[in-house]
Specification:
This protein is mainly beta. The chain is built from 3 helices and 19 strands.
Amino acid sequence: MQIGSRAENYQLAFTEPFLFDRSITGGFDIYSRTLRYIDQFTQESTGGNLSTGFPLANFSRMFFTYSYEQVRVTELNPFYYTQGIAAQNPFLADSLLLGAGGKRTISKVTPSFVHNTVDNPIFPTRGRRITSSIDLAGAGGDTNFIKPRFEAVQLIPLSRRTTLGFRGQVEYIRPYGSTNVLPIYETLYLGGEYSVRGFDIRSIGPRDPRTGLVLGGNKSLLFNAEYMISIAGPVRLILFYDAGQVRVRDQPFSLMEDIVEVIPPPGRNLNDPFSSGILIDPNAPLPTTSVIGERSAFKTSTGAEIRFFMPVLNVPFRLIFAMNPQRGGVFTNSLQPAKQYQFRFAVGSTF
């Protein structure tokens, strides 16, 4: 059970690693979650998972998971609709579920393959982990999509106290059938302590040019590198470098991206008689855009963190100092330009 101002998570889970006294994994979980993405929206999810797994070879297993989830989007940033923006952009309106009562049902099957020789899940020093999976969403729900994901982790010991670690990850998602537009919570993003450390969660991705709000993409590329130094006992110093980018359909991965300036259309604003705000004329022409330069398509973060293990809670705690060299076009969750330096506290590990 987790209760906080930005996240609430109630979950009951059970896993039997040796079902029927054989090397077969079986388990289930049921949950109710609320995630508040500051200045964007709130996602409320209720559902459950059934999973099973079996060995294929040494250190390799195959898993199958069935998931059923009902998701509701609430507390949308008023800028989405008070400015008439969603009305002028059917893609945005469908993505925000404005015509579906804010609800979607996701029913999916996920086969996955895992090869794992990493020696320690908390403080690893050597080994390799390869994970390949694909979400097949459709039958039993009202949202259809295919979402493959591939992740590779390599840990190389350099000495008794130092280890070099690398992680590469690529994701892709595509709707099919009766689903033309993915809901905003299924599109892909990067940012946060588990992907690109110096940026806010879900802050790296394609944005609506008029509002600056992140809409997400359909493919992402992520790279992480860590130089881990054992200080004493359960304490590690980690030097890191993170890089990633997110793209929309028909937009390939690249080293550089265009800097786009939004040019508002000529026309007059409408006064709202019930407030002091200004409305956009819904009949006015859409704004145009102009390319004014280029910047790095990869958003990067580098820095250091202290990671220490708390035996009572059985999780590693992290103090992270990050510098963000390539941050052009990325905003915080408060819609302010991303800062060059960030200090964060987190739990867990990046990979």
